[in-house]
Amino acid sequence: MSECTIVIGAGVAGMAAASKLKEAGKKVVVVEASDHAGGRMVRLTRNGDFVEAGAQGIHTNYTETLKLVEKYGLTKDIIHQSNDQTCFLSRTGEKLFPAGHMGIFKMLGLRGSLDLGRFLTRHMLMMKDFSLFETHRDIPEYDDISVADALKWAGPAFRDFVLLPGAHAMVGTDLNHTNLYHFLNLMKLVLTTKVMTLRNGLASLPEAIASTLDVRYSSPVRTLLIDGQKITGVELESGERIHGSHVVIACPIGAAAKIIPDHLAPTKDFLSSFPNVPLSLVYFYLDQPLDTKAYCYFGHAYRRTTFNMALNHTVKTPHLVPSGKGIISAWPCYPDSAVIDRLTDTEVKDKALRDMEIFFPGIAGMVEHAYVQRHRWGLSRMEPRIHAKILAFKQQAERLPGVLFANSDYDGVHMESGVRAGLRAAAKVMSTS
Ligand SMILES: Cc1cc2nc3c(=O)[nH]c(=O)nc-3n(C[C@H](O)[C@H](O)[C@H](O)COP(=O)(O)OP(=O)(O)OC[C@H]3O[C@@H](n4cnc5c(N)ncnc54)[C@H](O)[C@@H]3O)c2cc1C
């Protein structure tokens, strides 16, 4: 049998795996469904302006990602984001721009500030230890409960100005549809690190790695090939078969579920039933600059609507927007995001534009162009009791001969999770060949 390793997917996880294998002198071929590398690291380009339309930032504790950034000569391209000013709608719809810690305390009021202190003490300072980038242990106290149930002591100000915006921005859901485990993971990440981007967009990392590898684009995998119990290669949608000693599956869980043969029932069942957050983001390109220093807008204290978060890319990543004109993206969250996913682009744009009006009065008259970026998988949704299931799956998946999973989706959802999963998969290939 060929000693080649086949990596499915040219996202950052697949690139990390393939890069490590190539470095070790192994033969590796990457098969990618689309015509480009990057997966959920997406750069949109229009008239010389760029925006991040997938992953938004590299955190300072993404150690393995940063090693790749260095290895592929991109350290000079790192740009630290300031992300200083956020805007919140008050309960009456007034725009609040809290400045620094004092501004936050003033916005939260006495009860909200006390709730914040309680949360930070109980859940950050005294947090049980777990990896942010790998699901490696079950903590039932965190896993078995939704954020809504775990933090039901929270008063309205803390819930509306911290918990709801936090869940929306970081885990893509409301408080009922994510477990405490995942929420604490993301909160810790945001509160203890800073965010960076790359001069030419985050996709420049997987693109740089891909340029050194044998990547076959527009080659979606239909299924895995099996001989007895062992995975021996892949069959592409075109019917072509590629044989190899190992297959590394580095595509989103939903895509992985489709290529697993039916008779690998426990694996397929787990992947097919994994909950996710589809994300349809709407990018509005404006014909003029916007007079604001806020990079992010939240409306949760004022209203309950679908697109309740907006990013102002001209402030967030000015190095990517040389025109200086406003570029706004509108973000839905689960469960609304699942409803939006079924609408047409026109319907999604109309809804998003209406929801943006309160943040940016008159925006409808400034829009030059609008684009809907669909992430059909988006983010995985860590519902209560999912960590225990992930751990059981991992144990069982490790026993499948010839196949490795390099997946960010059940290991914390961050791009660093994908990189580390890719590196672990490569290490296993090397230890078994
Ligand atoms: C809107 C959004 C914002 C995010 N923001 C952040 C952030 O700020 N920070 C952060 O750390 N993470 C963020 N993430 C998560 C981050 O983008 C992902 O963790 C990471 O990019 C996943 O990398 P991956 O390689 O595991 O998967 P992907 O990037 O999804 O790559 C998988 C690849 O597999 C390919 N593929 C699929 N099916 C097949 C098939 N059958 N055959 C061959 N190829 C196939 C796909 O085309 C794709 O290129 C965000 C995600 C989204 C959607």
Shape: globular
Could you say what the CATH topology of the largest domain is called? FAD/NAD(P)-binding domain
Q: What is the CA-CA span between the terminal residues?
A: 12 Å
Quick one: CATH class of the largest domain?
Answer: Alpha Beta
CATH superfamily name of the largest domain?
Answer: FAD/NAD(P)-binding domain
Q: What CATH architecture label of the largest domain applies?
A: 3-Layer(bba) Sandwich
Number-wise, the strands total 20
Summarize the amount of helix as a percent range.
Answer: 25-40%
Major pleated sheet = 7 strands, mixed
Whole-angstrom Rg: 22 Å
How much strand? 15-25%
Low-confidence stretches: none
Structure summarized in a few sentences:
The chain is α/β, with parallel strands linked by helices and 433 residues long.
Q: What attributes characterize this protein structure?
A:
alpha/beta, 433 residues, FAD/NAD(P)-binding domain, 20 strands, 36% helix, binds flavin-adenine dinucleotide, globular
Task: Describe this protein's structure.
- The protein is α/β, with parallel strands linked by helices.
- It has 15 helices and 20 strands.
- The protein has helices spanning 12-23, 63-71, 100-125, 140-143, 147-150, 156-171, 180-192, 204-210, 253-259, 265-272, 313-316, 336-340, 345-356, 386-397, 415-431; strands at residues 5-8, 28-31, 43-46, 49-52, 58-59, 78-80, 86-89, 95-96, 195-198, 215-216, 221-227, 230-236, 241-243, 246-249, 276-286, 296-298, 307-312, 327-332, 367-380, 403-405.
- The strands form five sheets. A seven-stranded mixed β-sheet has the order 8-7-16-17-18-15-19, sandwiched between helices. It has a five-stranded parallel β-sheet with strand order 10-2-1-14-20, covered by helices on one side.
- Helix 1 runs parallel beside helix 15 (415-431), helix 3 (100-125) packs across helix 6 (156-171) and helix 9 runs antiparallel to helix 10.
- The chain starts with a strand and ends with a helix.
- Bound molecules: flavin-adenine dinucleotide (FAD).
- Flavin-adenine dinucleotide (FAD) binds at residues 8-14, 31-34, 39-41, 54-57, 220-221, 250-252, 255, 259, 279, 375, 378-379, 407-408, 413-416, 418.
